[in-house]
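BUG: 3D viewer hangs when loading the predicted structure for this chain

Environment: internal workstation, default settings.
Expected: structure renders.
Actual: progress bar stalls at 90%.

Input used:
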Amino acid sequence: MTRTVVGAAPRGVGAIVVGNFPLAYGQWFVPHSHPQHQLAWARHGVLGVAVEDAYWVLPPTRALWLPAGVVHRTGATRDAVLCSLYFEPDRCGLSWAEPTPVGIDGLLAHLIPHLGREDLPDDARLRAEAVVLDLLRPLPATPIRVPDPADDRVRAVADALLADPADPRSLEAHARAVGVSRRTLTRLFVHDTGMNFDRWRTHLRLRAALPLLAEGQPVSRVARTVGYATASAFLAAFRRTVGTSPGRYLRGDASFEASAASAADE
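Structure tokens produced before the viewer hung:
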């Protein structure tokens, strides 16, 4: 079993303490939690945050609110600087109970490093904290879930697709590779992940695409990288699964179709 680390930020004058952590490409923190609420933001680069089987991609235009006590992993999909705001629960008026994406606009992006100054007078710090709390707005974004299978045979198929999301093999071909029938692998996939093979692979491909899109790679290239023949096929799969376009999802200005939340749970 992986040991979960509990990391507490030092208490400050007000409700918020700011920490900055450079991360190299592919570097991930071990699973951990905090006694404070946390807002994870990429000051530079692109972050990934995983909570169980839910995964968020965070370019500088969006951050993720993590309630106190939530076990998570944070890492960099390219070189990045993780800027974390830690909120003392007993001094913070926000009480979002679930991980919640938050839009980062120009003012908020300037206030966060302002609060990170060590020479900031106490009265100025308290005024800035009040503005930060007023500016935090939740985004209607659904995380892309890729449940982790436990069965060794399903795990072998999942590992192959994680290594190469564009792997074109059918369910039947994967079943032969792990020594079971197509019917057995179909049943095992649903039992282990709650999804059929095609839906699980779609979620995996979309999750793999988001960091590449956040880095600014063209949609056509990203679509091919994760296994779609055309950009239009990829965009259709993304909208069908998430409820909006990748650009709107990453910018945080998505107007989700009414069916978005239910589509993510089907």
